[in-house]
Specification:
2 copies of one chain form a homodimer. Chain A is of the alpha+beta class. Chain A contains 9 helices and 17 strands. Chain A is elongated and about 75 Å long. The interface between A and B is large, with 52 and 52 residues. Chains A, B: GO terms for molecular function: aminopeptidase activity.
Chain lengths: 367, 367
């Protein structure tokens, strides 16, 4: 399991490259950047300063002091930018300070008025986009749990019977919400967090939470993106149809399955991430679906401590070994609903590989 | 269940008060502000602009367009500040624009270079701090589920037997991790999200995830903070001891129970939030615990879409009717571990009231 702070050497290299004196980040409590940089869940707004190979943190006085390996932690309630400037004063009275371009505006103004010149850096975002072996292992573990969750849904749907055009399981009508709770129970037993990301949609009849009763013949999308104990996310979505009549959803499923396979051909080291995204969409459309109205625009992107992180599948980023991608193929139609297949894929020197071996089929009894 | 956008009228009033032309926020995917302002889970960085009583959103082209009640949604991939300026251009060519003080620095610079003068506002933070009836109902519902989760832990601990100084349940040693998974299973069945916030700690022997085996005589803290379907959080922590010998943990528990009751006396409309926090700490210390080393500094604060939001229990905020507070009393000792009681409390015109009726005792068989 990944533990301890990460990103320090990437930050030090960026500081050297820019002749800067330090790197500053203001990390909100729930920002995965904090977990990455410190190795712990901070829970509160934290000032992170890296200078001369040393890490300093500042937390507010309303929390107990966290124990962060290799960092000195101070406690005060100054505005974040002033707290950062107070730490920087021990290293230099002015000069260039690196920060993410999204550093809070008030903190940037405080740092500038303390005599530091801000330059934006993508060092942390770029470091996070390349996963080491421990991080990949954490993603593989949470993806195994995700597979168990979808497997549970498949098993319930395979056991369901049809009565009056409604699916019935364990002597009661099966609703999106009931199926969602069963999937989440499995995720809890597997020891991962549901992360508010489990959704079950039934045909065109609304999202999870509204407890729509499931019917035969309509596409049921079961989607999970749990968080493992070290914070890393998985992502898996499958579409099932009970008593499929072989119409729209079969054709959409064939298209999504083919689009998913595009990643195995195109997600190579050195490939253009934007091109990969376009190719997934183009392959989906090639089966006769409208690029404008039916093919999803969300075909995935980097996944790690966040479900959406670098690299994006737009723009002209080049894929590198260690990128881990969410790959999503989906088609939506106003009369039929949605068909979707989502997986996690690792970009490696020996080619791209899906994490785990979840089947892709529409028939829940084939799982 | 709370649904639809919130905060619009508070923003409009702030715009009027400042003779501003608009309000701008850049909302990250996982920022609860986005859920508050739009009523939906956006999942991606979204530009929010409110002007002349109208709401505009901008999302990136890599996602499907969200359906947000009462808002017009546009899609492009400009930097957030430029996208906001493009929307503002339809209303005014310059003038004052309100924004949270933490607006990303790059977006602030783009807006300024487009001719707008930024003024910071706390309108959204302040609006979120006062919960309406629907929001309070959502918090009450998730707190009921939280109580079921802790109840499950109590029931397992009450059934556990002691063998060789280890707790045994269902024919196997009971660990922090095993108990945590059981609590999370109950939360899943109740239909709420575990939100990565379920922790079980045993005496001084490390945090959840390390799967420490539970022993009799040591304080076991079970802490949950689930998220309900509308995004609102609960918070509940209880401390149990199996076969307590009446030592440190009993004394610490009496202190925490008394400190918790302070909220029922002090959390009144018009009271100083910082004073409430100090009084909770002072009451804990009054039982002979060190304010510097043993009494927690995290005695709570506002709770809603985030576990930590306004009002803070430091500074000189005045409590108002509709504030919902997490109230936490905790004592940590290097040789004994931690004793903690956490609850949610509503500040009302007829006085403060804890949400739910979870017992506070140390003995799990009394639940």
């Amino acid at each position: 399991m990944p533990s301890g702070p990460r990103g320090g050497s990437a930050i030090d290299a960026a500081i050297d490259d820019s002749d800067a004196v330090a790197f500053v980040a203001i990390v909100r409590g729930d920002d995965p950047t904090g977990r990455y940089l410190t190795g712990v869940e901070l829970g509160v707004e934290t000032v992170y300063v890296r200078a001369a190979g040393e890490t300093h943190l500042r937390v507010p006085s309303t929390v107990d002091v966290p124990d962060v390996s290799g960092a000195s932690v101070r406690v005060d309630d100054k505005p974040a930018g002033k707290a950062a400037a107070a730490i920087l004063a021990n290293y230099a009275e002015g000069g260039t300070v690196l920060a993410p371009r999204t550093i809070p505006h008030d903190a940037a103004l405080h740092l500038e008025s303390a005599g530091y010149e801000l330059t934006s850096t993508t060092a942390v975002r770029d470091a996070r986009a390349v996963k080491d072996a421990d991080e990949r292992e954490a993603i593989e573990a949470v993806q195994r749990a995700a597979t168990r969750g979808i497997e549970r849904a498949a098993s319930i749907l395979a056991d369901a019977t049809v009565e009056d055009d409604t699916l019935v399981w364990a002597d009661a009508p099966l609703s999106t919400e009931r199926l969602r709770r069963q999937v989440n129970t499995t995720l809890a037993i597997e020891g991962v967090d549901t992360a508010g990301a489990t959704d079950v949609t039934a045909g065109t009849r609304g999202e999870a939470g509204s407890a729509v009763e499931l019917a035969p013949g309509e596409p049921l999308v079961v989607s999970v993106a749990p968080r493992g104990p070290a914070g890393y996310r998985g992502a898996l979505a499958r579409t099932f149809v009970v008593d499929a009549d072989g119409g729209w959803e079969r054709r959409a499923h064939v298209a999504c399955d083919a689009a998913r396979d595009v990643a195995l051909v195109e997600a190579n080291v050195g490939a253009d991430a934007g091109f990969l995204g376009s190719e997934i969409r183009a392959e989906t459309a090639a089966f006769g679906f409208s690029m404008a109205d039916e093919v999803t625009r969300d075909v995935g992107g980097g996944i790690g401590l966040a479900v959406r992180e670098a690299p994006k599948l737009d723009g002209d980023t080049e894929l590198v070994a260690g990128n881990v991608l969410r790959i999503r193929a989906a088609i939506t139609h106003g009369d039929h609903g949605r068909v979707e297949l989502t997986d996690v894929l690792v970009v490696g020197d020996d080619g791209p590989q899906f994490v785990g071996d979840a089947p892709t089929g529409l028939d829940p009894s084939r799982w």
